[in-house]
Amino acid sequence: MRHCHWLRSAFVTAFFYCALAVTCLGQSVDQSSLDRIMTESLKAWDVPGAAIVVVRGDEVVYLKGFGVRAISKPDAVTPDTLFAIGSTSKAFTTAAMAALVDDGKMAWNDPVRKHLPGFRLADPLANESVMMRDLVTHRTGLIRHDLLWYGSPWGRDEIIRRIGFVPLSFPLRTDFQYQNIMYLAAGEAVGHTAGQSWEELVRTRLFEPLGMKTANFSVNEVINVEDRATPHQKVNEKNIQIPWRNIDNVAPAGSINASVAELANWIKLHLNEGRVGGKQIISAANVNEMHMPQMVVRIEGRWKLFFGEPETTQLSYGLGWFISSYRGHKLVGHGGSIDGFRAQIQLAPAAKIGVAVLANLGNTQLPEAVAYQVIDLMLGLEPRDWNKRLSEESKKLEAEGAAAVKARFDRRVPDTRPSLALADYAGEYENPGYGAATVAVDGEALVLRWSFARLKLEHFHYDTFTPGRTGAMAGEMIQFYLNPEGKADSMIFQGMRFRRVNR
């Protein structure tokens, strides 16, 4: 009887999802409602331009551009306008891995060094055990350490070498820690195994069979395309144009530039178990593996902002995709963010519905707000005011960050003095992973130079200094340590200990 009950339940579940898919596929699409969602959202978020594609099954049911490519000129965004898609590129890296798994050249659980011999982690146990799957599920135990690549002078091999000296913050496979450099390592590993670069592999195994003829991998390529968006950032409540950010040194984690028109076939691949236009590009088994939960994600902080709690009740990470339980439906999606651009791709696989939204303004939640509204509309769910809800959550998160900086400054001990004269802190400091930092005296202040950063420091208290309350490193604390002879011999910067190399 127990087995019969299970069979009946399985049949009812399968029937429900089949019926849902057939119903959704058979319905007409409310074009005017989609137009309204986009126009209202652009106004709510004050975004210069955006583009959207909605796919149902193997059909594009909505494809449009809105607004302008740049605020300095009237050229309209079109479905073919190229945007930086940021971390939605990660799924292309895992799809390239899947292609090699299909070929028998790689397995998800292969040791990383089988495919990237120079790779290492600082923790001996993690170093011995780390697998390819770990790299692309954000569970190596390394926190972001994004300043090793963002604006840094180092190339891919050097970044991977340096991260090998950085201590893990958590044991392997115990906590979800979003980590771009591990995706760089994964991209280099698949390229090494395929005997070509990551870019060449993605182009030949994915872009070409999907007909993605204008999509590319670098600022150096996109600047030659006329129909491209310009990145914008909001400064003092006003949108300004900013330069494209070159991230070639971490490309497999987020460097792809694409249009919504060409992302349509990418969405179809994931809605149709790897088949597009009659071609099996990736096996159904490996598409399903990519969409399978691998690591639990706590719905808090920035993940609470992006995934719409309380509508999302469970969140996990697959292989290049977030998987969530949203109002009773499984969603598979990923966002992207790089200077001046935001992106979101969201799939409802059971209903065979997918949407991609690209915007040319940084730090906006328009792509998520639009994607949730489109999913609600296409699944026939009661609408929610996602523009309002995500705006409120974004302001709350921003306020929490400002409050944390304020609290740090509130703990400042007044009327203290440095132990040493400023010149006695000056010198060269080094960390095995983060490299060299220089501390010098400029007038009556210390200046710290590291990578792209030049920070003028003010005295905080005792032997601790800070670049201040505002700026990219707001609230950062640089703490100097003295040896038994009373000389500065190390400092903590970016949570890392730098040891003085000259006296």
Quick structural overview:
With 503 residues, this protein is of the alpha+beta class.
Describe, in plain words, how this protein is organized in 3D:
The chain is an alpha+beta fold. The chain has two domains: 15-401, DD-peptidase/beta-lactamase superfamily (Beta-lactamase), CATH 3.40.710.10; 422-500, Lipocalin (Beta Barrel). It is 33% helix and 25% strand. The strands form five sheets. A nine-stranded antiparallel β-sheet has the order 3-2-1-15-14-13-12-11-10, sandwiched between helices. An eight-stranded antiparallel barrel has the order 16-17-18-19-20-21-22-23. Helix 3 (90-103) crosses helix 9 (198-207) and helix 7 crosses helix 8 (180-194). It is globular, with a radius of gyration of 24 Å. The termini are far apart. The relative contact order is 0.12. Residues 1-25 have low confidence and may be disordered.
Topology summary:
Blueprint: H1 2-26, H2 31-45, E1 49-56, E2 59-70, E3 73-76, E4 83-84, H3 90-103, H4 112-115, H5 124-129, H6 132-135, H7 156-163, H8 180-194, H9 198-207, H10 219-222, E5 232-235, E6 238-241, E7 257-258, H11 260-271, E8 275-276, E9 279-280, H12 284-290, E10 295-296, H13 302-306, E11 312-317, E12 322-326, E13 329-338, E14 341-348, E15 353-359, H14 366-378, H15 386-410, E16 427-431, E17 435-442, E18 445-450, E19 453-461, E20 464-466, E21 478-482, E22 488-493, E23 496-500
Antiparallel strand pairs: 1-2, 1-15, 2-3, 4-7, 5-6, 8-9, 10-11, 11-12, 12-13, 13-14, 14-15, 16-17, 16-23, 17-18, 18-19, 19-20, 20-21, 21-22, 22-23
Helix pairs in contact: 2-14, 3-8, 3-9, 7-8, 8-9
